[in-house]
């Protein structure tokens, strides 16, 4: 019996254009590990310390016209192009994420239909044997998706 594992034949990503610097969080509320609020006068120090610990100075946010399925679709298109794969030949479309699309106006989460189904539709994949499914697994979701593919 031959064991087949998933392989990476291409990759794709999408980097949102909106850059948010750490300083944008100066008015946020911060808490100690036991739930006690930190004095807002200390926020600058909290933000500076966060930057020192994580080496993160800014992050990328989707624009108000984008949701996760938009970013995922663009990344998928790039991956398919990089791998030179016809989308109709896919047997699975696995989307690992933290949560579904988020409406920028209301902040409401939208899980149905799933991100994978939305991305499959936006890619115009007509193959009914291409199974589209989500893994809402948070940060390690990409690894869980590879394990699932195997």
What does this structure look like?
By secondary structure, this protein is α+β, with helices and mostly antiparallel strands. The protein folds into two domains: 18-61, no CATH class; 85-149, no CATH class. It contains four helices and six strands, in the order βαβαβββαβα. Strands 1-2 form a two-stranded antiparallel ribbon. The chain has a two-stranded parallel sheet with strand order 3-6. Strands 4-5 form a two-stranded antiparallel ribbon. Helix 2 (68-83) packs across helix 3. The longest helix has 16 residues, at 68-83. The chain starts with 17 loop residues before the first strand and ends with a helix. The mean pLDDT is 92.
Primary descriptors:
150 residues; alpha+beta; 2 domains; two-stranded antiparallel sheet; two-stranded parallel ribbon; elongated
Concise account of the structure shown:
The chain is α+β, with helices and mostly antiparallel strands and 150 residues long. The chain has helices at residues 43-54, 68-83, 115-122, 141-149; strands spanning 18-21, 58-61, 92-97, 101-102, 109-110, 131-136.
Integer-rounded radius of gyration = 19 Å
* Pattern of helices and strands: EHEHEEEHEH
Mean pLDDT: 92
How many strand elements?
6
Strand content: 15-25%
| Domain count | 2
User: Shape, please?
Assistant: elongated
Helix content: 25-40%
Instruction: Give the strand line-up of the largest sheet.
Output: 1-2
The main pleated sheet reads as: 2 strands, antiparallel
Low-confidence stretches: none
């Amino acid at each position: 019996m031959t064991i087949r594992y998933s392989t990476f034949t291409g990759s794709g990503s999408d980097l949102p254009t909106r850059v948010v610097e750490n300083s944008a969080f100066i008015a946020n509320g911060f808490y100690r590990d036991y739930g006690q609020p930190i004095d807002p006068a200390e926020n600058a120090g909290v933000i500076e310390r966060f930057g020192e610990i994580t080496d993160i100075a800014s992050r990328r946010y989707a624009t108000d016209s984008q949701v996760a399925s938009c970013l995922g679709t663009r990344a998928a298109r790039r991956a398919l192009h990089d791998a030179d794969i016809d989308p109709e030949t896919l047997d699975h479309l696995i989307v690992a994420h933290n949560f579904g699309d988020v409406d920028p106006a209301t902040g409401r989460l939208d899980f149905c239909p799933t991100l994978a189904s939305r991305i499959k539709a936006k890619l115009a994949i007509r193959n009914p044997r291409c199974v589209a499914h989500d893994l809402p697994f948070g940060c390690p979701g990409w690894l869980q998706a590879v394990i699932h593919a195997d």
